[in-house]
Design brief:
- By secondary structure, the protein is mostly beta strands.
- Helix content is 4%, strand content 36%.
- The chain contains 2 helices and 15 strands.
- A hairpin with a 2-residue loop joins strand 8 and strand 9.
- 23% of the residues are buried.
- The mean pLDDT is 83.
C-alpha cells in the first residue's frame, strides 16, 4: 500500500522502520507515541528516532540517509549489539499515516558496523544500491577465489558440516572443544553457527586449532556451558594442493597457481646467464 503524504495542511504522519536480523528476528518501531500494527508486524512506539534526511535518486550511486536513534529502543540490548547480531541486518524505513495506516517505504538497505559514540550506538546505513559498487570482474590469483562449498566450488556443504556438541570451553584462549570432533586442523578458516546457548543464531569464524579445540574470532560468553550445540563447517586454505589432495576438486579450482608473476616482466639477461 502506498500513499501521497503532506498533500493537506494537517496529517497524522509518523516514521516507521524495521530491522530484520540475520538470525531471523525482526524488530519494528515507529516514531508515533503508540504502537502501530500493519503488514502483520507490530511497530513499537519509539519517539527517539529522528530521520533528518532520506534522499533517493535514479542514479547509480548509493542513496543518502541520515538517521539518529535507530538503535535506541529498550528492546535492543547492549549485549546483542556487541555480539554483532545487528551487523548486516536488513533495514526498511518508511512513513505511515497513523489514522488510516496508509504507508510508503522510502529506504531499503542494511546496517554496517555498529560503534559506541557518546554513550550511545551508531550504525552505518547502506542503501540497496551499495551492491552496485562491488567489482564483480574476476582477477587472476594463485589461490582460489571461490568461497568454500559455493556454486563455483561445487562441493556439497552438507558433506563437510557437522552438528557438534560443546565438550569444554577455554575462555582465556577463546576456544571451544567439541565432542567427537576429530581432525580439528581441517576446520581452520571454517565457520560455525550456534544452534543454542547465548550465541544462538550467530556465525563465528575458526581462526585456529589448539589442544583439540577451535579458536574463534568472536569473544565467547561466560555463560556458555558444555552441551550447547553448533553446526561446524570445515575450512579451506584455497591452495591448489589442498583442493586436489584433500578434496579431489582441482577441476573446479578458481585460480591460476602456475601463472608467472610480475617479476617475470622485470627479468633481464646477466653475464652469468
Amino acid at each position: 500500500m502506498s500513499a501521497v503524504f503532506f498533500a493537506e495542511e494537517l496529517e497524522g504522519v509518523a516514521t516507521w522502520w524495521r530491522i530484520m536480523r540475520r538470525d531471523g528476528i525482526t524488530l519494528a518501531f515507529t516514531s508515533h507515541n503508540r504502537s502501530l500494527q500493519f503488514d502483520g508486524i507490530t511497530h513499537l512506539a519509539a519517539p527517539g528516532m529522528l530521520p533528518s534526511a532520506i534522499r533517493r535518486t535514479a542514479r547509480l550511486e548509493r542513496d543518502s540517509v541520515e538517521v539518529q536513534g535507530i538503535l535506541s529502543h529498550e528492546t535492543i540490548s547492549r549485549t546483542e549489539l556487541e555480539d554483532g547480531r545487528f551487523t548486516e541486518a536488513h533495514v526498511a524505513i518508511g512513513m505511515v499515516n497513523w489514522e488510516n495506516l496508509q504507508r510508503s517505504t522510502l529506504f531499503h538497505g542494511s546496517l554496517g558496523n555498529v560503534s559506541v559514540e557518546d554513550d550511545g550506538y551508531t550504525a552505518e546505513l547502506r542503501s540497496a544500491k551499495a551492491s552496485l559498487e562491488q567489482d564483480l570482474v574476476p582477477r587472476t590469483s594463485p589461490t582460489c577465489r571461490a568461497t568454500f562449498c559455493d556454486v563455483a566450488c561445487r562441493l556439497n556443504p552438507v558433506v563437510y558440516t557437522r552438528l557438534a556438541v560443546v565438550e569444554a570451553i577455554d575462555t582465556m584462549a577463546n576456544a571451544v572443544r567439541f565432542a567427537a570432533l576429530t581432525q580439528t586442523a581441517n576446520y581452520i578458516q571454517g565457520e560455525l553457527r550456534w544452534v543454542d546457548g547465548p550465541h544462538a543464531g550467530l556465525k563465528m569464524r575458526v581462526l585456529g586449532a589448539e589442544g583439540g579445540g577451535l579458536v574463534l574470532d568472536q569473544p565467547l560468553s561466560v555463560t556458555m556451558e558444555p552441551g550447547h550445540r553448533a553446526y561446524v563447517k570445515e575450512g579451506c586454505d584455497h591452495t591448489v594442493s589442498t583442493c586436489s589432495a584433500r578434496f579431489g576438486n582441482a577441476v573446479n579450482f578458481q585460480g591460476e597457481p602456475f601463472l608467472p608473476g610480475n617479476d617475470v616482466l622485470t627479468r633481464y639477461p646477466t653475464s652469468s646467464s
